[in-house]
Fold this sequence. Notes:
The chain has a single domain (about 5-245), classed as Alpha/Beta hydrolase fold, catalytic domain (Rossmann fold, 3-Layer(aba) Sandwich). Helix content is about 35%, strand content about 20%. It has helices at about 25-30, 45-55, 85-95, 100-115, 130-145, 185-195, 230-245; strands spanning about 5-10, 15-20, 30-40, 60-65, 120-130, 150-155, 175-180, 205-210. The chain has an eight-stranded mixed sheet, with helices on both faces. Helix 4 (about 100-115) packs across helix 5.
Amino acid sequence: MASGTPYEIPTADGPLPGLLWLPRETTHAGPVPGLVVMQEIFGLTDYIRSRCQDLADLGYAVLAPQVYARLDPPVLALEDDEEDLLGRAMGLLGQVDWDQAVRDGLAARDALASMPEVDELGVGLVGFCFGGGLAFNVAAQACQAEVPPAALVSFYGSALPQLLHLAEDVDCPSLHVFGTDDAYIPMEQVEQIREAVTAGGAREQVRFELHEGAGHAFDNPNPVFHHEEASEEAWAQAEEFLQQVLPTR
């Protein structure tokens, strides 16, 4: 499993640990686009780190901040075999200072953009579950500060129903993916999200994809969540979208 290289992200609230992946060609191919990856509720799991490696293999520089490093004690990730996995994850999530996490996401974006290996104008955001909503909020703040991300990919952003007042501010190419059998975000809310982020279909730069029969966290390989067909299709959509709006070649 590609675990990434430890990287300290400077922030106004003190340094934050993160993990960095660079594409193999970076040393002689010039600056490449970058992606900040925001973790799922379980932390920077093997699954999330594997997705970071997938993105690096596509040619992106990838930085994943360790959001749970702000907790006491700090946590990198929960293990799939932990007892009451979801309950423990919800407990960790309840300790997160959301505004702090947004600031950390912005700081990660700035840190990645400042690297000599990275095209400073070509940094996007990718998030999963908890991280999908967090990436959306980071994108809104960045756009308000007139440094919009080059792209946003949000996998079933769990906080999006509470963040729709920010939809008008997220002015960047975006992809949102959801499952139609998401027990955590029912279809009524999914359609409200679609209406808000696409401005009723008027925003052509926003792509919205639904995956029939898939539940929440369907890209996670844990058998409790995984939907193989939806996972394969959604990841292919993410790759296609990113290569359209933030090409690596």
